[in-house]
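hey so i finaly got around to running the thing on Peptide chain release factor 1 from Saccharothrix espanaensis. pasting the sequence first so u can double check i didnt mess up the copy paste, my clipboard has been acting weird all day
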Amino acid sequence: MGTPSPPAAPSPPVPSTSRSARTATRSTPASRRSSTPVAGWRASRRATASARASSRTDGVHPDPWVDAVAVSWAPSPPPHPSTPPPPHHPSTTPEHHPRPERRTVTLEALLAEHAELEAKLADPSVHADQAGARKLGKRYAELTPIVRTARELEQARNDLEAARELAAEDSGFAAEVDELTLRIPKVEEKLTELLLPRDPHDGSDVVLEIKSGEGGEESALFAGDLLRMYLRYAERHGWKAEVLDGTDSDLGGFKDVTVAIKAKTDTPDGVWSRLKYEGGVHRVQRVPVTESQGRIHTSAAGVLVFPETEDVEIEIDENDLRVDVFRSSGKGGQSVNTTDSAVRITHLPTGIVVSCQNERSQLQNKARAMQVLQSRLQVLAEEKAQQEASDARRTQIRTVDRSERVRTYNFPESRISDHRVGYKAHNLDQVLDGDLDAVLDALAAADRAERLAGG
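ok and heres what it spat out for the 3d tokens, dont ask me to read them lol
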């Protein structure tokens, strides 16, 4: 007698019909007559093909999703002979943008971290520590787009394989094969961008300083225009802006002004991710209100932007501080010019000076000034730790000289020009009213392209 054959392995579970199966059923003439036997036959075939495509990833890992992640960076399979080749995408093809194996490991680690964070956030005891829960929530929000895109890529690849099998028997599915073949490289490119190293401060709030420079009173007026522009931009995005300190000029401008801008909710792309490009010398060309001959003058104002620290990450020795109190100045009101409520803090080792006079009491002004001081010292500590100029403030000004400008506001031509990326637009009135998204998008795109080229 022959040796009995071992029992057959159980077949893998058949997943539900994929999204592409539903779209393909709607896209064919026969399937639109859903009451006919042909429509049901096609839907059944499609579900079977999708199940076969999904089941091919089983057997390597106990969890099919882990296996799908492990192969997620494999090059896209070649198009079916019956379909035209997709357009060339140099940024996504393996020969032009190789994807080393280390990115697969990184992706798996991020997916595992996302699952771990999800489990922790579901535990009510974690939320007893609000600061810790907030950190977990921010990290979870950062990883969610990566996980969502990775799953989208896995689903699209399974759908493409199933569509190719059906297209071999029915040419009505060829259109979906073409659509998926074009879409997958775009999803791969999106995932590549999401896996690039992020600025650790992108979700942070910011402290923004504007200082008048060359141009005297006209420069101070322009500093006031810049302040209004940033306040309007914050209003458009639903952010909260608070002026911490400022020195008025004689004609209603600002010699210097400090403002804190905060997002109302925690998001991976916060205030810093948008306004970090604003640091530098901003130049204005216009006829000043003080000009009686109608001549165009060129003035400048400097903008400094740095992320606001959420927790005390550095220790400040009280012996290193000199605290001065003085009477707050302003147009009047309770506690103005009557009590020594304004506070000026000097950090002796670094010479950094911070003042605040907008709060009602001396204690509140001191606490706010300490928060700004901590933010400045945090940036300084990062610069020293990296032994190079801070990447976060690489576009910040050194002197408020109009020759070092990063952007020009030309009033006669209603033109705004950003000299770092060659951006130009003739909508100066809208920009000064807070419509900054176009120029900030151009700067973000250039930064992203630079990181892609360097990665």
